[in-house]
Structures are given as structure tokens and as C-alpha cells.
UniProtKB/TrEMBL annotation, chains A, B:
Matches recorded under Pfam families: ROK
Species name: Bifidobacterium jacchi
Domain of life: Bacteria
Family from the record: Belongs to the ROK (NagC/XylR) family.
Name of the protein in its database record: ROK family protein
Amino acid sequence: MTCPIDSNPIDEALKAAKRPSEETFAVGVDVGGTKIETVLVDATGMVLADVRVPARRGGDNVIDDIARTVREVAGDHLNELAVVGVGTPGQVDSEHGVVRNVVNLDIDTLELGEKGSKILGVPVRVENDVNAAAVGAAALLGTPQKGAVAFLNFGTGLAAGIIIDGHLQHGYSGSAGEIGHIPIDPNQLPCPCGQHGCLETICSGASVGRLWTHGNPPMPDLIRQARAGNEEAIAVLAKVTHAIVDAMQIVAQSIDPSVIIFGGGMAKTGEPLVEVTREEIARREASCPFLTTLNLGDRIRLAPVDQPVGAVGAALAALQA
Amino acid sequence: MTCPIDSNPIDEALKAAKRPSEETFAVGVDVGGTKIETVLVDATGMVLADVRVPARRGGDNVIDDIARTVREVAGDHLNELAVVGVGTPGQVDSEHGVVRNVVNLDIDTLELGEKGSKILGVPVRVENDVNAAAVGAAALLGTPQKGAVAFLNFGTGLAAGIIIDGHLQHGYSGSAGEIGHIPIDPNQLPCPCGQHGCLETICSGASVGRLWTHGNPPMPDLIRQARAGNEEAIAVLAKVTHAIVDAMQIVAQSIDPSVIIFGGGMAKTGEPLVEVTREEIARREASCPFLTTLNLGDRIRLAPVDQPVGAVGAALAALQA
């Protein structure tokens, strides 16, 4: 599926730009378990071209699909790109451009940065998919450049992307934002990581799907059923919102971001998810004046659902790096 | 109590400095519940003079004691100071130099920055005491300038100071580092803040004093008794180290600091505290390969106990601001 943009988007952009020689273009690629989405953007993150193709398994196929779609969106201007950024699941070593353990795509170890750069003749930088989505969502929502922004990705697992003063945080061991494996949920469910009570055993898209099997996607149905008075739904929803607000307090009371973006599949639930989260925040605020001063409910924003957040973010993160 | 340094420490420093005109000096003041400590430092945090006086209650007395000790350490060179930094307990609005609710010193609201600047004729900047201690400890320990450093202050309460790329983090609402009131401790003790299970209900100096009343200070005695096989001590120590490692995982998996400094009164326990914390980390690592990769035990450093960490940090934080 290709956006209805002509095959020379940079030509068009150069025509439109007042100072064409100073304009910067980059390509961002969002590698997912089922599809690969590739966009051409300018330095502000504006999408000039967009291509989506089904993902194929295996490292060679992934590199082939990335190269093909990058060429498609860049047209004749491939060599004018400042950089290609790739956001991918798995364990990502951004510094060396190496990706490990992408189970859904049968990838054990892939030197994506080096191989991609050789094939395309353009620097290819690799980023964790949640971090890339954080950068993309922050840019598309126009969050403040100064101070901290947190992106909570409620996907298969739970992880956060942390941006401070416009810079994505990786941390000392590449574990910045790995809040899903903080073992503090009171239900103490076992986690595949080996701990008990990890936040993501309750508040991730996959976990909600295990806790609530009556609807697909589960979260909108869970909220509807709880609203309708279903006792089981009320109990499950209480667990989930409890863990979501624990996650919010963890980021708010460690880095105190001005904006907390909800992203990932579960965030597509939209406003109803924000509403039930705000109800749990209000319940806690009722007994805690300190929490009231934090005004957490007002900090929530939903990641844009109809825009290529991950691909745009991969491009912008690569431009920043 | 005055350090045996002559009354013109800047004179001496100027004589010793190769490029005297470029040397920067600042004064830092650590306002505590029982004493006020004031130091003259150079831009590296080296202490050139140090004065300690008993703290007197009331805003006017506090300002008077600050001004008096600043003049004492600066000597004739007061007007050559770049800045005076004050670290204080209570709610601190660094931007406006206002301090509120310093219960131990009978201060309701004090415009410390403005009043101090007028009296001294030098800019006076005010900082939260934990943040100031974080900056001081990081400087005195020589932690890396790049990346994140976390300072866990186990004092009356529990709070963290977060430094990223050499910059102290305040956050959007001034709540960066307020991890003590994250309500995730499984014992769910009531907290004066209105929540239940706040981390500081278990892992702060004051909380350990409530949980273990058999020794003073309680933490070294608690560890000794647990080591000797006292069942009650073993149970209390397990609660405390559990909460300490929860606090460590929260900072490690949100901002991923290269160094986690233990400070505050309880950290004066020294190596035995580090040992029991590492034992709890090892217990968790035994079932969780992910946690093993974080190597949290190796990141622990103890804040210097024989140096004026808070006062040095107040000066350096003011220089940075």
C-alpha cells in the first residue's frame, strides 16, 4: 500500500522549500511482526511519502524489504538522505546497529546497521521500536522540547520511551524505560522474565488479553462490560488501571515528565482508556494531597493512531543521534 | 566549629591558581534541622573553607546564620563570589528561591533567594537538600559526567536526586526523584501522605527506626542482629532490603543510571548496608536473567560520610543553574 504521493517526493519538497539547499530529509522504517512501514520525512517529521509491505521472516528478507521500501520512498534522491533510521523489536544495540532475538521474524542476530548502510550507501541507524515510537509520538503531538516526556507503550509487553530535553534516553545499560519488569504488582503473577509481579503481567495488551478473554480487542470490551456492571469485568479492570497508575507514578515521581503519552495496541482503545485511568488517579488523589499536586490525569495524551508514529520516530531518532 | 583554614582562603587559592582571573568561587550552605554548614569551594567543588554553626529556628534567624557564615568563609572576597547556593529541607521552589514548610525550623514561607541576595549582594540560589546532596556526592565521588546518576537519600524520608549528563533534574512539577511516595510496598503500611505502601514507609532512616527499636542508630544493629540469627531482625531486614531494591529497580529501569549513590543518615551504616542490599539483589537475579544483565549491585556507591556533601552540592548546583 503506497500513499498517493508522486515518485519524486523530494523534488516536490525541494520545489516547495524556500531554502532547498538547507533542507534535510531522512527515511524511517518501522519493522513490525506483520508489516514493515517506511516513510520519507523532513527534519520536522512531516511525512512526504509512505509505503507499507507485509513483513517476511528471516534476516535477509528483512534487510531486503527495508532496502526496497527505502528506495521506493526516496526515489532518485537516495544519496541525498541524511540517514535511514530503523525501529525494530528485539534487543537493540543502537551503538553498534545490532539487533538480537526478534522472535516473530526468526532473527537471532542481525547486523542491521552495517549491512543496511552497505546496501543503501546511506548511514543506517537502528533503534528499539518503543523508543522510536516515543520520538515519533512526541514529535507528532508537538510535546515541549524542554523537560521530560514519557511514552508508555502498552503492547505485547509494557515499556517506556523517555525523552529529556529532546533527547531519547538509552541509559547506562540500554535499559532506560524498561519499567515493565519492575516487580511491584500486588497480584504477583509469575513473569516469563523470572520475577513475580512485573508490571507488564497486568498492564500490557497481551496481559489484558489473558485476563479478559471475552472480547477482541479485549480492552474496549472490558471497559464496556465493567461500565455495564459486570462484576468480573469490574475486578479485572481495577487490577489493570491499578497497574497503569503505578506505572504512571513511577515515571512521574522519577523523571516528572510534563506529558505521559499512551501508545501501543492497547492505547487504540482511545478516550475510554484515558477515562478509566483518570478514575483510578482520582481515587488515589482523594486520600493524597501530594498526588493531587502532580495532576497526573491532565498529563495523559494518546499517541496518534492514524499516523506512522514508529516510522516517523525512527527517522527523527536517527537524525538526532 | 571552623576548619583550620586562614581567613582569606580565596587569597590563597588565587596565589595557587595559574590563571587567577578565570577562577570561579562559590559558597554553598547546607541548612539542616540542627546545624548549618557553609563552605567556600572552587568550580571543581574543592573545599577552601568550612564553617558549622547550630541552626536556630525562624526565618530571620536562618537568613542571619546563612549571611554570617557566608561572610565568614568568603572573607574580604564576598563580592567576587559567582553565587551562593543554599540547600534546604521543605518544599523548595528553586526557580523563585522560595522555601515552604520547613517544620523543624518553624518556617512557613521564606523568600530565601530574594532576601539572601539583597543582604549579601551576591546571587543566592535555593535548592532542595536532597538534590544538593546528590550534586555534591556525585562531584566528590567523581561519577561520570555523561549519562545518568541517581542519589538515593535514606533520611527521615526517602527521595532521590537525579542527574543526567551533569544536570540536576527538577521535572515538570518539581517532583523528579520523589520516589519515596510511590505506593508499591507489599506491606501496605499507611503513609502520612495519605497513600498506603509508599516506599518510604519501609526504607528510610525514620521508618527503620520504627520497625527496629532495639538499637540506635537502628540499621547497623538490625543488620548485626539478623546476622546473629535473630528471627525478628531477619524478618524486618528482609522487608527493608526488599524496599531498597524496589527503589533501585525503579530508578534503574526508568533512567538506568551508571551509579546509584546511597546517602542520608541510614547510608552511614556503610558497607554492611551495601552487603545486605547486594544479597537481596542476588536473590532476585537468581531467578531473573534480565536483572542479572543490569548488574545493579556493582552500581552502588556510598556517599562520602566525612565531607560536607550537602554544602558542596548546594554551591555546585547554584553554579550550574
